[in-house]
Amino acid sequence: MIRLLQIEIKKALGFRAIWWLGLLYFAVIATMLFGVEAFINEVVTDAGKNLPISIPGVSLYSFPGVWHNLTFLASFLKIFMAIISIILITNEFSYKTIKQQVLHGLTRYELFWSKVILNLTISFFATAVIATIILILGFRNTEEITWAVFSGKFSFLIAYFYEVFAYLSFAFMIATLVHRSGFAIGILMLYAFIIDPVLDYKIPNDWGDFLPVTSIGHIIQLPNSQLMKLFGIEFQTIVAIRDILISGSWVIIFNSVVFWYLKKKDL
């Protein structure tokens, strides 16, 4: 596995577009997360001027809630990671490097696992970036830190890693079946932002929860907050096992399709 990881990292670092996408992701995510609390409080203050009750300021950066708050916001940008994964995988087909690796002794089983490891590595990178930002903001904005306060919602960081990997598994399947980066990215965005939400809206009785992108998006949902509680609205407080199981089933399906394709098709 270490050998496969080394191969994938060496290939990934050789693509200049990946460096630019990674830097763009870091710039966007840092700007968004470091500025979101001030932005929301400004909006809340303006909206509360004409209300008969006083609306408290929103605190997003203190432990333990910061784990949930920022991973929820970061989950909207996992498309960046999916694009990086698609480019790396489709380039293998475009430049025939997949075929060359098989001819040079890499088994199709190893080829499959090398891409799974690639997606795990990208997921780890995204999680490490978010974790770093959370730690900086959390320690800066929490008055009294105990282990219970610090680790109270740490499970959402693990859930974020899992959510990104699940999303990349979907991108992995599309990239493998389509082979062309632009076309694969277009299909991913069309399905994720239009088809899946429309189906979720149209399907009755919560059956939409079983759709692939919807189920992945349900892993980390809108956090509960003092502002929402003020209006009697309750949102997510824990990561639900049901959402993990549903999305996990899709992860197995996505990767099984890829494994079948790499095993049976002429590369």
| Radius of gyration of CA atoms, rounded to a whole number | 21 Å
On the 0-100 scale, what is the average pLDDT? 87
Oligomeric organization of the protein chains: single chain
Major β-sheet profile: none
Structural class: mainly alpha
For the record, the count of structural domains works out to 1
Low-confidence stretches: none
Number of strands: 0
The rough form would be described as globular
What percent of the residues sit in helical stretches (DSSP H or I)? over 70%
Q: Give the amount of beta strand, in percent.
A: under 5%
How many distinct helices?
12
| End-to-end gap | 22 Å
Order of H and E elements = HHHHHHHHHHHH
Which features would summarize this protein structure in a list?
single chain, 267 residues, mainly alpha, 12 helices, 75% helix
Topology:
Elements: H1 2-13, H2 16-48, H3 65-74, H4 78-94, H5 97-103, H6 108-141, H7 147-151, H8 155-178, H9 181-202, H10 212-217, H11 226-230, H12 241-264
Helix pairs in contact: 1-6, 2-4, 2-6, 3-6, 3-8, 4-6, 4-8, 4-9, 6-8, 6-12, 8-9, 8-12
Description of the molecule:
With 267 residues, this protein is mostly helical. The chain has one domain. The protein is 75% helix and 0% strand. It is built from 12 helices and no strands. Helix 1 packs across helix 6 and helix 3 packs across helix 6. The longest helix is centred in the middle third of the chain and has 34 residues.
